[in-house]
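Support case: user asked for a sample of complex input and structure output to validate their parser. Sending the pair below.
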Amino acid sequence: MTGKSAKITQRHLDAASAVLNWYDSHRRHLPWRAGPGQPVDPYRVWLSEVMLQQTTVATVRSAFAEFTRRWPGVADLAAASRDEVMEQWAGLGYYARARNLHACAVAVVNDHGGVFPDTEDELRKLPGVGAYTAAAVAAIAFGRRAVVMDGNIERVAARWQAITTLLPAAKPEIHAEVDALTPDHRAGDFAQAMMDIGATICTPARKSKGRLSQPDCDACPLFETCMGRQGDPALLPMKKPKTPRPDRFGVAVVAEDEAGNILLERRGDKGMLGGMLVFPGSNWADGTPAQSRYPLEDNQAAKRLLEGGEAVTLNGNVEHIFSHFRVILTVIRVKPASGEGWLKVPKNELSGAALPTVMRKVARLAGLEAW
DNA sequence: GACCCGTGGCC
DNA sequence: TGGCCAAGGGT
């Protein structure tokens, strides 16, 4: 997109050239990457980029294989129901990605004749496609020159230029350097090369035995032009400290009717776990453990399940860490007098349902899943 | 800019 | 064990 570029120096040109040469012999071979001279499938590029948002390559490998086997093209994915997509996405997290993934496939079919738009601006308008994904797809799938900035490239560039400004304030400054580095041709290869370098050589610093792990600078194609090596590259990029993660407490009710169905509800589209299935339960509140108060006062429908049946509070808790808080759940098991009004899933079909991981932990504590 | 939004792996 | 991190997007 637009934005200031740093002045392009010979150092920039040398670095970009070295990166592309390195890529030709050291690129990672990943299922969603076309080989040299092989045709690129924009659907697979887009799908992999969405999956890779904040998610590791190892996790995406199997998920990508399952999705492409089930839905080989964008029209197949668009023709699926959203609930099917949510089921297939279960366990991958950030469920807005799954909602947007389906909405995006539908938009490509309905508004673009089933063909992905090939410019950054048009891609950017699709649901779930932000600055990074639009640039990546434009460059990788369509050979456009686009400035691709992700966490890896951000780190590599910040070290290469020895940028000491704190993130995220440093983003424009880093973007300007990446822009100046990005070649007119092979911008997609350049971006993927930078990500490979970030993932395998210019790795994030981790504390190990009280020291910071060091990047493998000797193996890096940017060795000669890197300014970060004049200091300690492991210290870069500098980041603003994160806000602490509070604890929340709540109750989940595992209710099984006479027919062996488990009672669930589907969350609304907005907010946490949107579109996914969850056990009835309380809200998750800051502060004190829920069992010390009146935990289901905020959910009368769930509370009603406990009336009539013998409710058992299970020993132990479910603990789960989300991006911005930790939740500790008390689990109550009950045979309700009536399951009316709840979504019913047969006990033996729970494993294929759109249950997020925290709810699978609840099911496990209640003895419902091997998992 | 700040905050919301999952999960698994690593040391 | 706890804190940090991963090919971010939406509001």
